[in-house]
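Worked Example 4.2. Consider the chain below.
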Amino acid sequence: MITPRRALKALVPLLIAVPLLAVPGVAQAKSCSDPAAGLTVEELRLTASLPAGGPAVGPELVRQAGFDRLVADFGRRLCATHSRWNARHLAETAGNDLWRTAVDRAQGRRPELGTLDRYDDRPLYWARLQMSKALRQWTPSFKLDAAARADIMTRFDLGARGLDDVKFPIGGKVKRVLMSGFDPFTLDGAGIRIGNPSGASALQLDGKLLQTADGPAIVQTVSFPVVWGYFDTGIVEKAFGTALADTRRRPDLIMTVSQGRPGRFDVERWAGAWRGGFPDNNNVSVVGQVPPAPGWPQPADQFIETTLPYQQMVGTTGAYPVQFNQSFCVWPDSTKPGTGTAVCRTDAPKPGEIAASGGGGNYLSNESMYRSNRVRVGLGIDLPGGHLHTPVLGTATAPGDITDDAFVARRKAIADQVVALVTTAAGATGSTAATNTLPQLTDATTSVRDVLGTVLN
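Applying the procedure from the previous section yields the following structure tokens:
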């Protein structure tokens, strides 16, 4: 039986297992903070500054967006919490408030919040880490075991990623679209100032009513972590599976979105059931088959094909070209996956072939498409679903800058085109894979690098 409670419980082990590391981080109230408590690698980056020096980048982005007051208020309220029940309520409320504040600021409803460009997704990421760090180092005045703390942290995290905020109307007069973006990633060294245009796009679209060619559509969005362990514990299924299983409010279209190749959008044809091991935001690498998600249907498909209306999406004009990417890769010996050189093609996978990568690679972007559509297929639901890769955003030009006009303009152009592409897809929900006409395919073999380019997440 599929229940949100089971999916929530599945996230608890991840939040318990943190590295036994400790360095000074964002200042917390001395009365309730243990600076020796272990932090995740992501949280440890809160002290990281640019090579040129200056303030720590994450907290500075939080300050410039006006989220520092929200973070500080959370710390004060946490110190004043005297029961587990109150702590759980505070965590849920604070997570939801952070998400709603980020969405409202992104969509122009909070102009008083900070001086940073409103399209910037990075303050949400870093504020979330400041608050999770406060929870992890919190020394409550009452007994709190590791499992209870992890439960509290899970409740905060789900809210701060928008998973508690997915609310669709009942009925068929308005179409329903569920979309996901991602956190920033590759944050070590100078990468500390990186953002993710898919996360920025999610903030622009959450709760938005789009006027499409086939009537109005309401969009709900969530933001996924770039962490293998979260995917192991079912966060994708928690978001998409819960929505798909709701027969009264089921989405009419699902779309995962992530950052992909330079200079172009890609509608990916195939998602593959393989993890390639690129390090995540906690510097963890995982290689092998995408594992099952307990409590959800688990069809054993090595590849899952998009059902998005890609022809209409490819025809959507904007600052960047949009392509339909048909590449995928298989292992040369299906009895020994993970060995040998992957064979990449653009026709279609054959029965018995084992996935080495989907068109979007073998990182968490590919896995977000695979997992969300594995649930769709497993539940026997026929609706448009698939993945969109955005162009690479890059960073500010000067090595010591966290933003500049060109960076701001690129992010806005990408996010605005995502809005246009989602509008197009929602307006063409009757034109799924069954009515798409594939162009002439080839069976040319090429290298993984040539086919997959620089797609990561």
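The radius of gyration is 21 Å. DSSP finds 15 helices and 14 strands in the chain. Compare this with Example 4.1 before moving on.
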